[in-house]
Amino acid sequence: MSLVLDPAAQDLLFREARTANTFTDEPVTDEQVQAIYDLVKYGPTAFNQTPLRITLVRSPEARERLVQHMAEGNQPKTATAPLVAILSADNEFHEELPALFPAFPQAKDVFFAERPAREGSAALNAALQAAYFIVGVRAAGLAAGPMTGFDFEGVRKEFLDDDHTPLMIVNIGRPGQDAWYPRSPRLAYVDVVTTV
Ligand SMILES: Cc1cc2nc3c(=O)[nH]c(=O)nc-3n(C[C@H](O)[C@H](O)[C@H](O)COP(=O)(O)O)c2cc1C
């Protein structure tokens, strides 16, 4: 009763949504990915810095190169998912800040002149955006399989550059056969929330 979001949407985004480990062959189109991005880009980040960058791994040759960097248990699903996305944080996001945060264009120099400050902020805010992205995939009626079981330095060298830090790799598609493990329990409200 406390939530205004339609119950069917609550199920789609959270209660019934699962992390898929297998997928059907149905392709995921660029139009779907664009619709997902155009929704989740409105999720908030500090100073509106939006440091998430998304690399769609579409060619079979690139897919093969990526699979080599995945942990063994993640290799089959990364090899067979209709679409795989590398999510990374842009550590040079500050270049866009004057345009992205016109209310305080000096933020670029006041807070983000030093690379370590940018890296910390980019890691947090791109991770937030990765979470929005996963929920956006679900909003498109698709399932996401996020993974951090891979060689981060290998993926950075193979697909990115020194200015980008890999965050996670996400398999995307419609769930296939035996797509998920049994649902694991979640911590209860009383175990997580304290009031002071
Ligand atoms: C950031 C992140 C990293 C993950 N890494 C892996 C991974 O490397 N391999 C894997 O099989 N599952 C991975 N998972 C999947 C989680 O185990 C799964 O989302 C969680 O158990 C919840 O499952 P459910 O959505 O089916 O309830 C990852 C999930 C997240 C969000």
TrEMBL record:
Domain Nitroreductase: 17-174
Stored Pfam families: Nitroreductase
Entries under InterPro entries matching the protein: Nitroreductase, Nitroreductase-like, Nitroreductase_HadB/RutE
GO molecular-function terms, A-Z: oxidoreductase activity
PANTHER family: MALONIC SEMIALDEHYDE REDUCTASE RUTE-RELATED
Protein name (Swiss-Prot/TrEMBL): NADH dehydrogenase/NAD(P)H nitroreductase
UniProt organism field: Streptomyces alanosinicus
